[in-house]
Fold:
Amino acid sequence: MSPAHDRRRPIVVGAALGGVLIAAALGAVLTADDAESDTIAASGLAGGQEIADGASGAAATPIGLALPDLEGELGQNEAEPEEEIEPERADGGCTIGALSIRLGSTGDGVECLQQALADEDFYDGAIDGDFDDATLAAVISYQEDADLFVDGVVGRESALRLEIWPDEESLVVRTPPPADGAMDSTGHLLSPVASVGADAPPLPDNSGSGRRVVYDRAGQRAWAVGGEGEIIRSWLVTGSQYSNEMPGTHTVYSRSEMSTAWNGQAWLPQMIRYQRTQIGHIGFHAIPLHVDDNSPYQGTEELGTRLSGGCQRQHNLDAAFMWAFADVGTTVVVT
Structure:
């Protein structure tokens, strides 16, 4: 992502999203329902349209204005619970040791942050590993000065600028490409970044049970798991550069054969939504296409890296499998 795209303030994002929501109300952002049993949860719907609650699986809840799907350059760094991942930086330096740290966080990652802020002359307090009010004030000052999203949370964008973000590639497991024409147990062709059964990387710890989809943010990988706990398929994805996919157990609440990104610049084929944020939906979809010429936004070699605005991009063969596997009501566990 270029520095120009990296530099967004909350007021800019708010204005942009406000325009998007107005456009959505006018039907400018369109989606298509794939089956009668599916709830449409995307933009361009008439007032009173209902949307299923993806977090709790509760009855459909009316919404006044439909939200867009989060893809593209959002410039936001939504808060998320701290999650230790313990990687090392490529050059051996310290890292924040988590996907994000914030007020109340403690430990070596906070100490690393405090030292980095001190080196940039934004912090003159104790290097004690306690993310206190003084550290928060320094983070906010740094974000303002660097023209980053100002929220006091040190996630990917702030940590990258401070050079204390982990080496992401060290967390990604790349399996050998399957043989030409290889299929999974459901009869779907494997993509170059997919694997099955014993050839697949093991599931993350504490990733649920039963039939489900598991998405590991640190490793940028998804698994489709059968009712007996067997790995039907595993594949690399391209996730959010803003770490706004919330960990926990979610439920697929909406699907569209074709959707568009919040800014109207990308087609999102086979969109499967499982998380609704305050500003839009997050889900799995095929590689996005530019609206102006239908060219893909990325290649297969970029799967396993963070490039999206929130959703998980998939190789088209993996997206076709996911479309068949993840009906409305399917459990999605995000680690």
Q: What stands out?
A: Residues 3-76+239-334 form one domain.
